Amino acid sequence: MTTLAGLPTTPLPPFVTYQDQQLMVEGASLAALAREHGTPLFVYSRAAMLQALAAYQRGLAGRRHLICYAMKANSSLAILQTLVAAGCGLDIVSGGELERALAVGVDPTKVIFSGVGKTRAEMRQALSVGIGCFNVESRAELDVLDEVARGMGLRAPVSIRVNPNVDAQTHPYISTGLKGNKFGIAHEDVLSTYQHAAACEGLRVVGIDCHIGSQITQTGPYLDAMDRVLDLVEQIEAAGVPIEHIDFGGGLGIDYQGDNPPEADVLWQALLQRLDVRGFGDRQICIEPGRSLVGNAGVCLTEVLYLKPGEQKNFLIVDAAMNDLPRPAMYQAFHRIVPVAPRASEDAPTWDVVGPVCESGDWIGRDRALAVQSGDLLAVLSAGAYCMSMASNYNTRGRAAEVLVDGAHAHLIRARESLTDQTRLERLL
Ligand code: LLP
What we know:
Elements: E1 16-19, E2 22-25, E3 28-29, H1 30-37, E4 41-45, H2 46-59, E5 65-70, H3 77-85, E6 89-92, H4 95-103, E7 111-113, H5 120-128, E8 133-136, H6 139-151, E9 156-163, E10 185-186, H7 187-198, E11 203-209, H8 220-238, E12 245-247, H9 264-277, E13 284-287, H10 291-294, E14 298-308, E15 315-318, H11 327-331, E16 337-339, E17 350-354, E18 363-369, E19 377-380, E20 401-406, E21 409-414, H12 419-423
Parallel strand pairs: 4-20, 5-6, 5-13, 6-7, 7-8, 8-9, 9-10, 9-11, 11-12, 12-13, 15-17
Antiparallel strand pairs: 1-2, 2-3, 4-14, 14-15, 14-19, 16-19, 17-18, 20-21
The structure holds ligand LLP.
Protein backbone atom coordinates (compact mmCIF):
# COMPACT_ATOMS: atom_id res chain seq x y z
CA MET A 1 0.00 0.00 0.00
CA THR A 2 1.25 3.47 -0.85
CA THR A 3 -0.06 6.99 -0.41
CA LEU A 4 -0.78 9.25 -3.37
CA ALA A 5 2.72 10.62 -2.99
CA GLY A 6 3.97 7.06 -3.44
CA LEU A 7 5.09 6.64 0.19
CA PRO A 8 4.50 3.25 1.83
CA THR A 9 1.77 3.29 4.50
CA THR A 10 3.18 0.49 6.67
CA PRO A 11 5.92 1.47 9.12
CA LEU A 12 9.52 1.14 7.99
CA PRO A 13 12.25 -0.57 10.05
CA PRO A 14 13.97 1.57 12.72
CA PHE A 15 16.33 4.23 11.33
CA VAL A 16 14.94 3.83 7.79
CA THR A 17 12.89 6.96 7.01
CA TYR A 18 11.70 9.19 4.21
CA GLN A 19 12.91 12.77 4.43
CA ASP A 20 11.71 15.13 1.70
CA GLN A 21 10.56 12.14 -0.35
CA GLN A 22 14.02 10.54 -0.19
CA LEU A 23 14.77 7.30 1.61
CA MET A 24 17.43 7.57 4.29
CA VAL A 25 19.28 5.17 6.59
CA GLU A 26 20.00 7.23 9.70
CA GLY A 27 21.37 10.51 8.30
CA ALA A 28 22.57 9.10 4.98
CA SER A 29 20.71 9.52 1.70
CA LEU A 30 20.43 6.19 -0.10
CA ALA A 31 20.34 7.85 -3.50
CA ALA A 32 23.66 9.55 -2.73
CA LEU A 33 25.18 6.27 -1.52
CA ALA A 34 24.04 4.50 -4.70
CA ARG A 35 25.59 7.27 -6.81
CA GLU A 36 28.85 7.00 -4.92
CA HIS A 37 29.19 3.23 -4.66
CA GLY A 38 26.91 1.81 -7.37
CA THR A 39 24.30 -0.91 -7.03
CA PRO A 40 23.48 -3.47 -5.80
CA LEU A 41 24.61 -2.05 -2.48
CA PHE A 42 23.93 -3.18 1.07
CA VAL A 43 23.50 -0.36 3.56
CA TYR A 44 23.35 -1.03 7.30
CA SER A 45 22.41 1.14 10.26
CA ARG A 46 24.76 0.87 13.22
CA ALA A 47 22.15 2.38 15.53
CA ALA A 48 19.57 -0.23 14.48
CA MET A 49 21.94 -3.05 15.42
CA LEU A 50 22.79 -1.49 18.76
CA GLN A 51 19.10 -0.87 19.47
CA ALA A 52 18.29 -4.52 18.73
CA LEU A 53 21.15 -5.63 20.97
CA ALA A 54 20.04 -3.28 23.74
CA ALA A 55 16.68 -5.07 23.94
CA TYR A 56 18.47 -8.33 24.77
CA GLN A 57 20.81 -6.56 27.18
CA ARG A 58 17.82 -5.02 29.00
CA GLY A 59 16.03 -8.36 29.07
CA LEU A 60 19.02 -10.13 30.63
CA ALA A 61 20.23 -7.29 32.88
CA GLY A 62 21.13 -8.42 36.38
CA ARG A 63 21.71 -12.02 35.25
CA ARG A 64 24.98 -13.74 34.49
CA HIS A 65 24.71 -13.90 30.75
CA LEU A 66 26.55 -14.01 27.45
CA ILE A 67 25.05 -12.85 24.17
CA CYS A 68 26.90 -14.63 21.37
CA TYR A 69 25.96 -13.05 18.04
CA ALA A 70 25.42 -15.87 15.51
CA MET A 71 27.71 -14.47 12.86
CA LYS A 72 26.38 -16.68 10.09
CA ALA A 73 23.61 -14.07 9.79
CA ASN A 74 26.12 -11.47 8.60
CA SER A 75 29.82 -12.05 9.10
CA SER A 76 31.21 -8.86 7.57
CA LEU A 77 34.11 -7.77 9.75
CA ALA A 78 32.85 -4.27 10.56
CA ILE A 79 29.54 -5.70 11.72
CA LEU A 80 31.28 -8.19 13.99
CA GLN A 81 33.49 -5.37 15.23
CA THR A 82 30.42 -3.25 16.06
CA LEU A 83 28.68 -5.98 18.01
CA VAL A 84 31.82 -7.20 19.77
CA ALA A 85 32.64 -3.64 20.85
CA ALA A 86 29.11 -3.45 22.30
CA GLY A 87 29.81 -6.49 24.48
CA CYS A 88 28.82 -9.49 22.37
CA GLY A 89 30.57 -12.81 22.19
CA LEU A 90 30.19 -14.77 18.95
CA ASP A 91 28.58 -18.01 17.87
CA ILE A 92 30.60 -19.61 15.08
CA VAL A 93 30.15 -22.66 12.85
CA SER A 94 33.46 -23.01 11.01
CA GLY A 95 37.18 -22.40 11.20
CA GLY A 96 36.63 -19.55 8.77
CA GLU A 97 34.18 -17.88 11.12
CA LEU A 98 36.69 -18.38 13.94
CA GLU A 99 39.31 -16.52 11.88
CA ARG A 100 36.86 -13.66 11.35
CA ALA A 101 36.06 -13.62 15.06
CA LEU A 102 39.75 -13.42 15.98
CA ALA A 103 40.33 -10.75 13.35
CA VAL A 104 37.99 -8.39 15.20
CA GLY A 105 39.67 -9.12 18.53
CA VAL A 106 36.89 -10.98 20.32
CA ASP A 107 37.84 -12.63 23.61
CA PRO A 108 38.01 -16.33 22.55
CA THR A 109 36.42 -17.39 25.83
CA LYS A 110 33.30 -15.57 24.61
CA VAL A 111 33.12 -17.68 21.46
CA ILE A 112 30.84 -20.72 21.11
CA PHE A 113 31.50 -23.24 18.36
CA SER A 114 28.23 -24.71 17.01
CA GLY A 115 27.51 -27.01 14.08
CA VAL A 116 27.15 -30.71 13.28
CA GLY A 117 30.33 -31.20 11.26
CA LYS A 118 33.41 -29.77 12.95
CA THR A 119 36.61 -31.22 11.51
CA ARG A 120 39.61 -32.26 13.60
CA ALA A 121 41.54 -29.32 12.17
CA GLU A 122 38.79 -26.92 13.26
CA MET A 123 38.72 -28.49 16.72
CA ARG A 124 42.49 -28.06 17.08
CA GLN A 125 42.29 -24.47 15.82
CA ALA A 126 39.56 -23.63 18.35
CA LEU A 127 41.28 -25.42 21.24
CA SER A 128 44.57 -23.69 20.56
CA VAL A 129 43.00 -20.25 20.94
CA GLY A 130 41.10 -21.20 24.10
CA ILE A 131 37.55 -21.16 22.81
CA GLY A 132 34.73 -20.80 25.38
CA CYS A 133 32.63 -23.79 24.46
CA PHE A 134 32.04 -26.46 21.83
CA ASN A 135 28.35 -27.16 21.28
CA VAL A 136 28.54 -30.84 20.41
CA GLU A 137 25.88 -32.44 18.26
CA SER A 138 26.63 -36.19 18.24
CA ARG A 139 28.29 -38.93 20.23
CA ALA A 140 30.76 -39.46 17.39
CA GLU A 141 31.77 -35.79 17.46
CA LEU A 142 32.19 -35.96 21.24
CA ASP A 143 34.61 -38.86 20.94
CA VAL A 144 36.69 -37.17 18.25
CA LEU A 145 36.84 -33.95 20.28
CA ASP A 146 37.96 -35.95 23.33
CA GLU A 147 40.73 -37.54 21.30
CA VAL A 148 41.87 -34.26 19.73
CA ALA A 149 41.92 -32.47 23.10
CA ARG A 150 43.84 -35.27 24.82
CA GLY A 151 46.32 -35.20 21.98
CA MET A 152 46.94 -31.53 22.79
CA GLY A 153 47.06 -32.16 26.54
CA LEU A 154 43.88 -30.10 26.98
CA ARG A 155 40.31 -30.53 28.13
CA ALA A 156 37.73 -29.20 25.70
CA PRO A 157 34.86 -27.25 27.28
CA VAL A 158 31.66 -28.87 26.00
CA SER A 159 27.96 -28.40 25.96
CA ILE A 160 25.65 -30.90 24.34
CA ARG A 161 23.06 -29.66 21.91
CA VAL A 162 19.76 -31.16 22.81
CA ASN A 163 17.05 -31.67 20.24
CA PRO A 164 14.01 -30.86 22.37
CA ASN A 165 11.52 -32.08 19.73
CA VAL A 166 9.63 -28.79 19.80
CA ASP A 167 7.91 -27.32 16.75
CA ALA A 168 9.20 -23.77 16.24
CA GLN A 169 6.32 -23.15 13.81
CA THR A 170 8.51 -21.64 11.14
CA HIS A 171 9.62 -22.54 7.59
CA PRO A 172 10.65 -26.24 7.44
CA TYR A 173 14.12 -25.34 6.10
CA ILE A 174 14.86 -23.17 9.13
CA SER A 175 13.20 -25.35 11.77
CA THR A 176 15.83 -27.34 13.65
CA GLY A 177 14.34 -28.64 16.91
CA LEU A 178 12.18 -31.47 15.61
CA LYS A 179 13.04 -35.16 15.67
CA GLY A 180 13.49 -35.46 11.92
CA ASN A 181 16.22 -32.74 11.86
CA LYS A 182 19.94 -33.43 11.60
CA PHE A 183 20.60 -31.20 14.61
CA GLY A 184 21.22 -32.03 18.24
CA ILE A 185 21.08 -35.20 20.32
CA ALA A 186 17.67 -36.81 20.86
CA HIS A 187 16.09 -36.13 24.23
CA GLU A 188 16.19 -39.78 25.30
CA ASP A 189 19.95 -40.10 24.60
CA VAL A 190 21.03 -36.90 26.33
CA LEU A 191 21.58 -38.25 29.87
CA SER A 192 23.76 -41.16 28.75
CA THR A 193 25.74 -38.82 26.47
CA TYR A 194 26.45 -36.49 29.42
CA GLN A 195 27.54 -39.43 31.58
CA HIS A 196 29.87 -40.51 28.81
CA ALA A 197 31.23 -36.97 28.33
CA ALA A 198 31.85 -36.55 32.06
CA ALA A 199 34.00 -39.68 32.01
CA CYS A 200 36.16 -38.48 29.09
CA GLU A 201 39.56 -37.14 30.12
CA GLY A 202 39.74 -34.73 27.21
CA LEU A 203 36.38 -33.10 27.94
CA ARG A 204 35.04 -30.72 30.56
CA VAL A 205 31.26 -30.46 30.69
CA VAL A 206 30.26 -26.82 31.07
CA GLY A 207 26.76 -26.45 29.68
CA ILE A 208 23.74 -27.59 27.77
CA ASP A 209 22.23 -25.99 24.70
CA CYS A 210 19.37 -26.03 22.25
CA HIS A 211 18.32 -24.07 19.18
CA ILE A 212 14.91 -24.87 17.79
CA GLY A 213 14.82 -22.85 14.58
CA SER A 214 14.87 -19.43 13.04
CA GLN A 215 12.37 -16.62 12.37
CA ILE A 216 10.33 -17.72 15.40
CA THR A 217 7.55 -15.23 16.11
CA GLN A 218 5.93 -16.79 19.19
CA THR A 219 6.96 -17.20 22.81
CA GLY A 220 5.33 -20.63 23.23
CA PRO A 221 7.96 -22.73 21.43
CA TYR A 222 10.73 -21.08 23.50
CA LEU A 223 8.92 -21.86 26.76
CA ASP A 224 8.34 -25.45 25.68
CA ALA A 225 11.99 -25.87 24.72
CA MET A 226 13.10 -24.32 28.01
CA ASP A 227 10.94 -26.77 29.97
CA ARG A 228 12.33 -29.72 28.06
CA VAL A 229 15.92 -28.54 28.56
CA LEU A 230 15.40 -27.88 32.28
CA ASP A 231 13.89 -31.36 32.72
CA LEU A 232 17.14 -32.69 31.30
CA VAL A 233 19.32 -30.45 33.50
CA GLU A 234 17.53 -31.92 36.53
CA GLN A 235 18.28 -35.46 35.38
CA ILE A 236 21.89 -34.72 34.42
CA GLU A 237 22.68 -33.00 37.70
CA ALA A 238 20.94 -35.76 39.66
CA ALA A 239 23.40 -38.09 37.94
CA GLY A 240 26.26 -36.00 39.35
CA VAL A 241 27.21 -33.87 36.32
CA PRO A 242 26.94 -30.14 37.11
CA ILE A 243 25.74 -27.77 34.35
CA GLU A 244 27.21 -24.26 34.61
CA HIS A 245 25.49 -22.56 31.72
CA ILE A 246 22.30 -23.01 29.75
CA ASP A 247 22.34 -21.89 26.12
CA PHE A 248 18.92 -21.27 24.57
CA GLY A 249 20.22 -20.64 21.05
CA GLY A 250 18.89 -17.95 18.74
CA GLY A 251 15.92 -17.89 16.45
CA LEU A 252 13.89 -14.82 17.39
CA GLY A 253 12.15 -13.54 14.28
CA ILE A 254 11.90 -10.05 12.81
CA ASP A 255 9.13 -8.17 11.05
CA TYR A 256 9.45 -8.83 7.32
CA GLN A 257 5.79 -8.48 6.39
CA GLY A 258 3.63 -7.54 9.36
CA ASP A 259 5.15 -10.38 11.40
CA ASN A 260 4.77 -9.67 15.03
CA PRO A 261 7.55 -11.31 17.03
CA PRO A 262 7.90 -10.44 20.72
CA GLU A 263 10.55 -7.83 21.58
CA ALA A 264 13.69 -9.52 22.91
CA ASP A 265 13.26 -8.00 26.38
CA VAL A 266 9.61 -9.08 26.59
CA LEU A 267 10.52 -12.59 25.46
CA TRP A 268 13.25 -12.78 28.09
CA GLN A 269 10.98 -11.49 30.82
CA ALA A 270 8.74 -14.49 30.19
CA LEU A 271 11.64 -16.93 29.89
CA LEU A 272 13.42 -15.70 33.02
CA GLN A 273 10.20 -15.98 34.99
CA ARG A 274 9.94 -19.63 33.95
CA LEU A 275 13.63 -20.18 34.75
CA ASP A 276 13.12 -18.73 38.24
CA VAL A 277 9.98 -20.77 38.91
CA ARG A 278 11.88 -23.89 37.96
CA GLY A 279 14.74 -22.95 40.32
CA PHE A 280 17.45 -22.32 37.72
CA GLY A 281 17.59 -18.54 37.94
CA ASP A 282 21.20 -18.64 39.17
CA ARG A 283 22.65 -20.28 36.04
CA GLN A 284 24.64 -18.44 33.46
CA ILE A 285 22.43 -17.87 30.42
CA CYS A 286 23.88 -17.94 26.91
CA ILE A 287 22.02 -17.01 23.77
CA GLU A 288 22.93 -17.02 20.08
CA PRO A 289 20.79 -14.45 18.27
CA GLY A 290 21.61 -13.72 14.63
CA ARG A 291 18.77 -12.38 12.50
CA SER A 292 17.14 -10.36 15.28
CA LEU A 293 20.33 -8.29 15.76
CA VAL A 294 21.04 -7.41 12.14
CA GLY A 295 18.12 -8.38 9.90
CA ASN A 296 16.18 -5.15 10.05
CA ALA A 297 19.32 -3.04 10.23
CA GLY A 298 20.08 -3.52 6.53
CA VAL A 299 18.63 -2.67 3.13
CA CYS A 300 19.79 -3.67 -0.34
CA LEU A 301 19.71 -0.93 -2.95
CA THR A 302 19.06 -1.95 -6.52
CA GLU A 303 18.48 -0.08 -9.76
CA VAL A 304 15.58 -0.77 -12.10
CA LEU A 305 17.09 -1.85 -15.43
CA TYR A 306 14.03 -2.62 -17.55
CA LEU A 307 10.26 -2.61 -17.42
CA LYS A 308 8.89 -5.66 -19.20
CA PRO A 309 5.11 -5.63 -19.18
CA GLY A 310 3.53 -8.88 -20.37
CA GLU A 311 0.24 -10.56 -21.01
CA GLN A 312 0.27 -12.66 -17.87
CA LYS A 313 2.86 -10.92 -15.74
CA ASN A 314 4.70 -7.65 -15.62
CA PHE A 315 8.38 -8.02 -14.87
CA LEU A 316 10.55 -5.40 -13.30
CA ILE A 317 14.14 -6.35 -14.03
CA VAL A 318 16.55 -4.96 -11.45
CA ASP A 319 20.32 -5.23 -11.03
CA ALA A 320 20.21 -7.25 -7.79
CA ALA A 321 19.59 -10.97 -8.11
CA MET A 322 19.31 -14.27 -6.30
CA ASN A 323 23.08 -14.34 -5.86
CA ASP A 324 22.79 -11.15 -3.75
CA LEU A 325 19.43 -11.90 -2.11
CA PRO A 326 19.03 -15.68 -2.01
CA ARG A 327 16.20 -15.86 0.55
CA PRO A 328 13.21 -15.54 -1.82
CA ALA A 329 14.57 -18.24 -4.14
CA MET A 330 15.54 -20.55 -1.27
CA TYR A 331 12.66 -20.14 1.16
CA GLN A 332 10.02 -18.22 -0.78
CA ALA A 333 10.89 -15.51 1.74
CA PHE A 334 9.21 -12.11 1.60
CA HIS A 335 11.23 -8.89 1.62
CA ARG A 336 9.48 -5.55 1.32
CA ILE A 337 10.57 -3.46 -1.66
CA VAL A 338 10.12 0.31 -1.56
CA PRO A 339 11.16 3.14 -3.88
CA VAL A 340 14.13 5.27 -2.82
CA ALA A 341 12.50 8.39 -4.30
CA PRO A 342 8.76 7.68 -4.61
CA ARG A 343 6.94 8.97 -7.67
CA ALA A 344 3.63 10.68 -7.10
CA SER A 345 1.38 8.57 -9.29
CA GLU A 346 -2.06 7.09 -9.16
CA ASP A 347 -0.93 4.30 -11.40
CA ALA A 348 1.21 1.70 -9.67
CA PRO A 349 1.10 -1.48 -11.76
CA THR A 350 1.83 -4.84 -10.20
CA TRP A 351 5.25 -6.29 -10.95
CA ASP A 352 7.30 -9.37 -10.30
CA VAL A 353 10.67 -7.94 -9.30
CA VAL A 354 13.34 -10.17 -10.79
CA GLY A 355 17.10 -10.16 -11.27
CA PRO A 356 19.33 -10.76 -14.30
CA VAL A 357 20.33 -14.33 -13.35
CA CYS A 358 19.34 -17.00 -15.85
CA GLU A 359 16.93 -18.92 -13.63
CA SER A 360 13.16 -18.68 -13.27
CA GLY A 361 13.80 -18.92 -9.53
CA ASP A 362 15.63 -15.59 -9.65
CA TRP A 363 12.93 -13.42 -8.14
CA ILE A 364 13.09 -10.91 -5.31
CA GLY A 365 9.42 -10.04 -4.89
CA ARG A 366 6.16 -11.09 -6.49
CA ASP A 367 3.09 -9.01 -7.33
CA ARG A 368 4.42 -5.71 -5.99
CA ALA A 369 2.56 -2.51 -6.78
CA LEU A 370 5.23 0.05 -7.70
CA ALA A 371 5.19 3.27 -9.70
CA VAL A 372 8.66 3.15 -11.26
CA GLN A 373 10.66 3.94 -14.34
CA SER A 374 13.88 2.54 -15.67
CA GLY A 375 16.81 4.00 -13.71
CA ASP A 376 14.85 4.34 -10.46
CA LEU A 377 16.32 2.96 -7.26
CA LEU A 378 14.52 0.47 -5.06
CA ALA A 379 15.37 -0.61 -1.52
CA VAL A 380 14.86 -4.22 -0.55
CA LEU A 381 14.19 -4.06 3.19
CA SER A 382 15.15 -6.40 6.04
CA ALA A 383 18.27 -7.41 4.11
CA GLY A 384 20.77 -7.29 6.99
CA ALA A 385 20.65 -11.01 7.81
CA TYR A 386 21.31 -14.05 5.62
CA CYS A 387 21.75 -12.00 2.46
CA MET A 388 25.37 -10.87 2.11
CA SER A 389 26.56 -13.87 4.14
CA MET A 390 24.75 -16.20 1.72
CA ALA A 391 25.67 -14.30 -1.45
CA SER A 392 27.38 -16.18 -4.27
CA ASN A 393 29.15 -15.52 -7.55
CA TYR A 394 26.58 -17.35 -9.67
CA ASN A 395 26.62 -16.06 -13.26
CA THR A 396 30.05 -14.57 -12.45
CA ARG A 397 28.40 -11.70 -10.66
CA GLY A 398 30.68 -9.94 -8.21
CA ARG A 399 29.32 -9.70 -4.70
CA ALA A 400 27.84 -6.34 -3.76
CA ALA A 401 29.56 -3.59 -1.79
CA GLU A 402 28.51 -2.81 1.80
CA VAL A 403 28.21 0.46 3.67
CA LEU A 404 27.70 0.92 7.41
CA VAL A 405 26.00 4.16 8.37
CA ASP A 406 26.69 5.76 11.72
CA GLY A 407 24.67 8.96 12.06
CA ALA A 408 25.61 11.11 9.08
CA HIS A 409 28.79 9.11 8.38
CA ALA A 410 28.77 6.33 5.84
CA HIS A 411 31.68 3.89 5.96
CA LEU A 412 32.41 1.62 3.02
CA ILE A 413 32.96 -1.68 4.87
CA ARG A 414 33.34 -3.90 1.82
CA ALA A 415 34.30 -2.89 -1.68
CA ARG A 416 32.46 -4.35 -4.64
CA GLU A 417 34.02 -7.63 -5.75
CA SER A 418 35.85 -7.31 -9.06
CA LEU A 419 36.34 -9.90 -11.75
CA THR A 420 40.00 -10.11 -10.70
CA ASP A 421 38.87 -10.95 -7.16
CA GLN A 422 36.62 -13.63 -8.57
CA THR A 423 39.17 -15.34 -10.79
CA ARG A 424 42.17 -14.88 -8.51
CA LEU A 425 42.41 -18.57 -7.58
CA GLU A 426 41.76 -19.92 -11.04
CA ARG A 427 44.38 -21.11 -13.53
CA LEU A 428 44.20 -21.59 -17.28
CA LEU A 429 45.40 -24.95 -18.55
N1 LLP B 1 22.44 -20.85 16.76
C1 LLP B 1 22.44 -21.89 15.92
C2 LLP B 1 22.99 -23.17 16.38
C3 LLP B 1 21.93 -21.76 14.62
O1 LLP B 1 21.91 -22.81 13.81
C4 LLP B 1 21.42 -20.50 14.20
C5 LLP B 1 20.90 -20.31 12.85
C6 LLP B 1 21.46 -19.43 15.10
C7 LLP B 1 21.96 -19.64 16.38
C8 LLP B 1 20.95 -18.06 14.76
O2 LLP B 1 19.60 -18.07 14.47
P1 LLP B 1 18.81 -16.70 14.22
O3 LLP B 1 18.77 -15.94 15.53
O4 LLP B 1 19.51 -15.97 13.18
O5 LLP B 1 17.46 -17.15 13.79
N2 LLP B 1 19.34 -18.78 6.18
C9 LLP B 1 18.08 -18.87 6.88
C10 LLP B 1 18.28 -18.97 8.37
C11 LLP B 1 19.18 -20.11 8.79
C12 LLP B 1 19.43 -20.16 10.26
C13 LLP B 1 20.50 -21.15 10.58
N3 LLP B 1 20.85 -21.24 11.97
C14 LLP B 1 17.23 -17.66 6.49
O6 LLP B 1 17.67 -16.86 5.69
O7 LLP B 1 16.10 -17.54 6.95
